[in-house]
User: Fold this.
Amino acid sequence: MKGVPDVRVITQPIKITSNDINFEIMGSGRARQSVQIYPAVAEEITAIFFKAGDKVKAGTILVQLDDREEKLVVKMSEVRLKDSQSLLKRYQLAVKDGAVPESDVDSAQAAVDVAKVVLAKAKLAVEERKIRAPFAGVLGIPRVDPGERVSINTLITSLDDRTILHVDFEVPEVLAVELKKENTITAHTPAYPNITFSGAIKALESRVDPQKRTIMTRASIKNDLDLLRPGMSFMTRLEIAGKDYPTVPEISLQWGRDGSFVCVIRNNLAKRIPVRVVARTAGDVLVESEIDETDQVVIEGLQRLQPDRKVIVSSNTKSSELSTKSP
Assistant:
């Protein structure tokens, strides 16, 4: 504008900042696999082969129940099966000479099949009196003693596979769409206040809790040093990578009747650019706008600035890093 002196302003480059989401929540630890072991049948304990804290392989016998009667049934079933098989062989030879009818052979074959089932059932009864570890893990305290008669409701002990510890925590539904498997987490537990444990999200609940408006999330932490125990509490920090946004100093943000805006300099002219505030971080504002990454935003001299007013940039605040990550 003729006769109107140019306005002197100070500008600063636009930064690009990722709107990362950092979320902290308390969670509970649980073993990769965990089970309480009960007998399959009621019987007297004859031997216990473990103590608290033992590491066992899958299939290891932990407790032996009295199986003397069941072993006798196995022997009797083996004798009956052998007898049935012998009779079947005789009938099969005799039927060729017409000495016995085919129906007798069929009956003998059925008797063999029944005897095999009876024997298998007898062997299963013997096996049921051996209480085994269903998977590899660490055993808890024995809850029974030799000579004690147990029922199917008697707790023998607990077994945990804690090579990996799962941490379950609830995330607000507003973050549910941002959650992805393999999102990394960090966790702290009061048992080791100076150690940070790292993990990743491995599972998400299929639905949002309608009462709490949260989604159950499970992260996994490798427990190679066996420091962690099921049941521990964890303060879990979840980091979700956000979208990149232009970032301007908070002092450059202005408000008018049409909402918020910033002034940028293009070809030595002031341009008012509408913006939508996305987030604020340490004196900066992440905005959604048509700001160009190469623009210079005005931080001083805004009071006298009008749209399309010619300006003189007195100084330019350099940014040592144009692309940053929010803390």
